Amino acid sequence: MQAPSDLSLAAPSRDAAVLDDPQQWGAFGKPVADSQDLWESNLVIEGMHCAACAITVEDALRQVPGVVSAEVSASSHRARVRWSTSRVKPSDWLQALRAVGYGAVPANDALARERRLQESRRALWRWLVAGLCMMQVMMYAYPAYIAAPGDLSAEMERLLRWASWVLTLPVILFSCGPFFRAAWRDIVHRQVSMDLPVALGMLITFVVSTAGTFDPQGAFGREVYFDSLTMFVFFLLSGRWLEQRLRDRTAGALEALLNRLPDSVQRLRADGTVERVAVSRLAVGDLVQVVAGETFPADGQIVQGHTQVDEALLSGEALPLGRGPESQVLAGSHNLTAMVQVRVERTGADTRFAQIAALMESAALSRPNVARLADRIARPFVIAVLLAALAAALYGWQRDPAHALMVAVAVLVVTCPCALSLATPAAMLAAAGQLARRGVMVRSLSSLEALAEVDTVIFDKTGTLTRDAMGLGTITTRQGVTAEEALAMASALARHSLHPVSRALTQAARARGLSDSWLASEVSEQAGQGLTAMLAPGGGGAGRRAFRLGSAAFCGHAQGRDAAVQTCLADEQGWLASFELTEELRADALAVIRDLQSRGIAVQMLSGDSPAATQAVAARLGIEAARGACSPDDKLALLRAAQQSGRRVAVVGDGLNDGPALAGAHVSFALGHAVPLAQARADFVVLGDSLRMVALSLALAGRTMRVVRQNLAWAAGYNALCVPLAVLGWLPAWLAGLGMATSSLLVVLNALRLASTRTSRLAAGPSDAALTLE
Amino acid sequence: MDILYLLIPLSVILVFLILGGLWWAVHRGQFEDLEVQGQRVLKDD
Fold first, then answer.
1. Among A156, A160, A167, whose Cβ lies nearest the Cβ of B15?
2. Residue at B45 is within a domain
3. A471-582 has which CATH code?
4. B9 lies in which domain range?
5. DSSP states along A104-122
6. Could you report the per-residue pLDDT of A457-516, keeping only the tens digit for each?
7. CB-based contact (8 Å) between B17 and chain A?
8. What integer is the mean pLDDT of A43-53?
9. Do B12 and A129 touch (CB under 8 A)?
């Protein structure tokens, strides 16, 4: 049986030229912000087997003139290329990839899905061929093992060997194809990777056994090893097949999210008739009809119908949510119960879905520091194994060439650098996937590493420990200004900010029907302090004046009643009004703080509000280290001081108003729905509204690093034990194959423990069993 | 025991026939989407 030609590798450059059309670029990439002509494109790389391949692909891409940077993820087979539109075309770097033997298709493309399906079918088919042939070869080998001398006639033995040889052919020619192809590519490009020793081992075994079958008097003796050969090929393929399935499951949350949008959607024409259009052709203002079971194609507002939606992947909210006319629905969420009509408000890259997808892609591509170390070790390790196998073969050659060769085969097959390079990314991706399912997005995998070491957590108060929505209490105003007027002016300013206080003001004004009586221009926001703007009366009348809205200090006003949160409005003549705001603690704040403290993590609170208001909240939560009246610079200074005293600090804020502190921390969390994801510069973004996710992430990060250490220790221990055994000739080839496949699998399975909901609840310990989501 | 000289080549042919069947199954997509097919029977339409 001849191996079918590998479509993915031999793919003609038909689609490459198509990709040179700038109109196509948007489908799998986006222009880089703040640059003239840079684009960032996402690719799915084919033919990659291990970490060493990732480095090869990266190097090949980087060597193309005009490619600024390239990052390749070994575990998700995805690449991100930054390239200059004026100096290079997509077909150029695709050509460069093909030259080193890898195929690539644009990510977020139906083509990629089709290719992946083909690849998985081929993998399954290879595995089945190896499995069935192995079973039958075993049957033919059995008589030779049990027959007493003389029982088995010479002709019968020869017939059984020929039959074994015939059934080994499809295994070696077809099932082993990927190993040989990868090894050949490595030889051609003068590289070493994982597949080279394995392919060498297979080839040697087959040659020795074939010689034993057809020329029993020859130099290689009369022994045959067809049973060992088919068995270890089967074990290796089983290992790879399972590994691939597990990886798909681990990255499942990511993939599920990225592939979530439907391809087409029913759009309502003006006359009420329905047409099917591609989602990419939707425009803002279109009216679409989404039936039960479909996914919403864009962010929008329900015009007609009541339904329930599943937003689990977008917000971590596990329960179905009711949605009726005038309520918002998000692209990527599922319509569960009834047909609704939706007015499209945001499409494509503007949707929250697209922002989350972008975040997740950047996480999957980042490579943690521990993994970089393992990647560096893998290459010299493979070279050492090749040398050890050569030494073992030379040592025994004089006595028995066939036996010496089989010892070398065992050495080649037993080593498992893949376990070494899989150890870290597998665990971290599993953890990131688990967090993603709970509604926590990880920006880069290294931050999981950093989070595991955190011993101090600094919380911002407003909107973090307290509920996002605040109520408006009493309004105190300057003589001659009514409360209503003051609120109308304040809300005109506040509308331009996402700070919880601003949102509370806007909401209160809208509730009283005051929203549009003033127009603001030249609005600027000083993070953590307040807003300044020019206000003019809405009717176009005269009286344009400068206003400030923010903390008492920002508005040049003395602190009012201390224990309450208040914000001030001032114009050119000074203080104009004070708005007292009532805030509620989040329901889970106390439990989360207790939990962190019980795990020996120091908890601090910093706030821009008055010291008295801050202390009041701190006392209720049992936080000793609390400081009020902090400007963003104060927060940063306190953070630096904590870091200099050797503490590893995580900062939890709303992601927008704590910018500098978040950026300065070892690890940062941004919390709350309202923040536009693209602007939140935090390592972890909590999509839902739950503080407990912070505690959960901390627990999971600790667990992840434990699993990584276990994996690395296992991979190192396994190789240290098995390679010497094989060199000494104490490991038969089939056992070596089994050991290698099991070793890789164990690493992936161990990592997968992080992805299972049940174990993560157990791992979190009894103290925060209440914290994990049901 | 002479029958073995016929049966063993026959078993080789049989293996190839089974492989042919598996090839058909894999490439017709019989092993994809295992959950959905099981649930299809529960759907009304």
1. A167
2. no
3. 3.40.1110.10
4. 4-40
5. EEESSSHHHHHHHHHHHHH
6. 888 877 677 776 677 777 777 777 777 777 777 777 777 776 767 777 777 777 777 666
7. no
8. 72
9. no
